[in-house]
Amino acid sequence: MATAILDFGIEKALEQLGVSNHNKGTSTGSDWFSSEEKISSYSPVDGELIGTVETTTAADYEKVIQTASEAFKSWRVMPAPQRGEIVRQFGEELRKLKEPLGKLVSYEMGKSYQEGLGEVQEMIDICDFAVGLSRQLHGLTMHSERPGHRMYEQYHPLGIVGIISAFNFPVAVWAWNTALAWICGDVCVWKPSEKTPLCGIACQHIIAKVLKENNLPEGISCLINGDYKVGEMMTKDKRVPLVSATGSTRMGKIVAATVGERLGKSLLELGGNNAIIVTPDADIKMTVIGAVFGAVGTAGQRCTSTRRLIIHESIYDKVKNAVVDAYGQLRIGNPLDENNHVGPLIDKDAVKGYQNALEKVVEEGGKIVVEGAVLSGEGYESGCYVKPAIAEADNSFKIVQHETFAPVLYLLKYSGDIENAIDVQNGVAQGLSSAIMTNNLREAERFLSYAGSDCGIANVNIGTSGAEIGGAFGGEKETGGGRESGSDAWKVYMRRQTNTINYTTELPLAQGIKFDL
Ligand code: UN1
């Protein structure tokens, strides 16, 4: 019997969240539909089958879209601050269920319990943010070139927002999208990762309860489950004006092409290949904390994970030794046990990706400085636990250019001035997160300038991961260009309308055109 289930209260958490051994996987709120095929969710923590989830058929998808379209008609006319009140109540429910949901995230996905709690906190934070925003959603007013005319812009709800999320943030990324979409007046259809479907079931129960208590119609929050074919139902569907997809660059290119083909909108948050530049003026202690958490947190499976450390030659050995020492202290094991720093990878395919990276870096001429290993024996029965590894490498290596979703950190050396480090930092296809460790104002500002980091996120004296929800989250190049979460990311969930009103008795034309009848 799975010890994690017994020792860490997983059974109770599942019960509190309404997740059972066999779950229907298609829902429009309180209504759930049955089907024949199912996905099995195994925990990477102990290899146990946690539960099954029935997948969505084409006929059930149709019902979902019809119910969502119907719900949209009433939801969009509800004043935005009232929709904000619903999101506020959803945030309250999340506060009550933070521990069980954090546990399920940890058990189904494998991240540490602390990070599981952090993920639920991120959901709560975005709800709070969205509640305030529900009293804004403002456009601009402009001065018209014509006398007696008023010009302004307003934002209207879009319709159905399709959400495709990844296993690594199985609940927070859904909430980033839904909390904003809902206050904007949209309704949502969510396809969670096939690797973490139970997190989807739990979240759907939480929001369904809130919607029911407020007598709101079915369809404001819908859940569908299955593999890429179910995702494709949404990406191809003209009735879904916006598809927000988080995952690999490979997947994002397919989503972008399919949605683009029908001129829909897509919001993409794809791969990263994030680096920390460590300059001669860096605080080494801070560098070690930022780099190690960035590289091994979530077992290196964040889009924002630190994959490359670009270290100045003058302090290279010092930084290398400090980071290697810190790796020696890492405890790898059951992520529900708070004494451990690093949990398992999501599955055995991810373990293969990790092993492949370590083989390839050596083949290409790199040198391993902290050996990797796939752990076995007591506590490691799932076969998904690996030892975080470090290799000295070169930015030109194919494997360094590639995002490996595992705790493999590459050390790269630079010489001369900060421009050289920035070139290395920018010298990859992805552009999500970046950081510099320095106490030198000139270097920091150059890193942040127009000639500096080309990423969507650029930090000074903190690592690459762990962004707060208040800022827009996303990146450039192969990261896909989308922005989710804070700042004005809400605008993508709405359609902008420019309005010009003439309050005179004349009809002058713009650009001074004469058209006399
Ligand atoms: C992701 O990996 O897809 O900045 C999201 C972070 C988290 C979100 C990561 N707040 O690391």
TrEMBL record:
| Limits of the Aldehyde dehydrogenase domain | 33-498
Tell me the PROSITE patterns matching this sequence.
Answer: ALDEHYDE_DEHYDR_GLU (PS00687)
Q: Where is the active site?
A: E269
Q: Where on the tree of life does the source sit, at the highest rank?
A: Bacteria
What Pfam families has UniProt attached to this entry?
Answer: Aldedh (PF00171)
Give yes or no: UniProt keyword Oxidoreductase. yes
Q: What quaternary arrangement does the UniProt entry report?
A: Homotetramer.
Give the E.C. number(s): 1.2.1.3
Q: Which family does it belong to?
A: Belongs to the aldehyde dehydrogenase family.
**Signal sequence region:** none
Enumerate the GO terms in the molecular function aspect.
aldehyde dehydrogenase (NAD+) activity
Q: What is this protein called?
A: aldehyde dehydrogenase (NAD(+))
Q: Which Gene3D superfamilies match?
A: Aldehyde Dehydrogenase, Chain A, domain 1 (3.40.605.10), Aldehyde Dehydrogenase, Chain A, domain 2 (3.40.309.10)
- Which major enzyme category is it? oxidoreductase
Going by the UniProt record, its keywords in alphabetical order are: NAD, Oxidoreductase
